[in-house]
């Protein structure tokens, strides 16, 4: 039963990280995600690359749901990504409501991942 719960959590956190991959499609999608306009083509390139990286992380987390040997790396990568974004957002004086919403989602994802980690450690 613990393995199923861990798998479900990895799928959920994977989907949470996969969703921003739509930003790779362009500035319009990125504006919808973050409430910002990316008119500078260099900044647009960076944000599109970020979208691809989050998509890859999301796919990895989903794969970890089905491959126990990937789960330790999944925990490390998931926490590093979600908690670093949350820290950067909270260091801002006034993050916009879109950024704040992403930070809250990342905190929720981190809590889920922490539950999965506890279950994982109990099962080993």
Written account of the structure:
The chain is mainly α. It has one domain (2-123). The protein is 80% helix and 0% strand. α1 packs antiparallel against α3 (41-66), α3 (41-66) runs antiparallel to α4 and α4 (71-91) packs antiparallel against α5 (97-123). The longest helix has 27 residues, at 97-123. The model has no long low-confidence stretch (mean pLDDT 96).
Show the helix and strand layout.
Blueprint: H1 2-18, H2 27-34, H3 41-66, H4 71-91, H5 97-123
Helix pairs in contact: 1-3, 1-5, 3-4, 4-5
Helix content: over 70%
Number of strands: 0
How many DSSP helices?
Answer: 5
Oligomer: single chain
Order of helices and strands: HHHHH
Main sheet properties: none
Low-confidence runs (pLDDT<50, min 5 residues)?
Answer: none
Short description:
By secondary structure, this protein is an all-alpha fold.
Keywords summarizing the entry:
80% helix; 124 residues; 5 helices; elongated; mainly alpha
